Amino acid sequence: MRITKFVCLMLVALFASGCEPIMSLHPLFLEKDFVFDARLVGDWHDRDGKPCCRFEKSADGYTLFFLNKNGEPVNKYQAHLANLRGLLFLDILLKEAMPQDLFERSFPLFLVPAHTFYQIRFEGESFGYRFLDDEWIESMRKQKKLKLPCVQVDDLTVLTAPTDKLQKFVLKNLETKDAFSPFEEGRLHRPTPSPQ
Question: Can you list the positions of beta strands (E) in 34-72?
């Protein structure tokens, strides 16, 4: 399996919905856009109540872990929360996707860091998310309507636009039909406390 597809599938496992988030060589944020929100820190479960992910505070944002069915961390990501025109976006970058010793010996030789990003909104003890849809991007590219630099990597379209152009494109298309997955399909919840 190609590494890029592997990374995409891992992200779909985290933020599961019908389509896949688009990948970008550049982040969606600049340093001036950084924000920290303590509400993101902690464990999150999917809509079926299964462990999904854990956010921990780090020096420059968050460390994000996938959780297996026992709630144990299995993959490590770097995550940043950005405020763009009053809206929150989460930018995620893979750091480790296998045991540390094997990762250090081989995986970085084949890994081109790629970002995925999600608009998020907190609602009580949950947060909804949506992402720029890969199928919409691919459709726009095929119609020669995509006004954003990109490259084709096998069957994946990868955005190559610099951060400033990426931000403008994302903000411009927030309400464009089919450009983003719906918030209703993406939601993570705080774990339900066990009865004492």
Answer: 34-35, 42-45, 51-58, 61-67
For the full predicted model, state whether its pTM sits above 0.90: no
Dist. CA 33–CA 40, nearest whole Å: 17
Element housing 195 (H / E): none
**Using an 8 Å Cβ cutoff, are 161 and 24 in contact?**
yes
Of 156 and 120, more confident: 120
Long-range contacts (CB closer than 8 Å, 24 or more residues apart) made by 36-42? 36/61, 36/81, 37/81, 37/88, 37/122, 39/122, 39/127, 40/81, 40/90, 40/127, 42/190
The residues, ordered by sequence, that sit 6+ positions from 58 with a Cβ below 8 Å of its Cβ are 78
Q: What is the pLDDT of residues 68-98, one digit of tens each?
A: 888 888 888 899 999 999 999 999 997 765 5
Answer with the residue of higher pLDDT: 144 or 102: 144
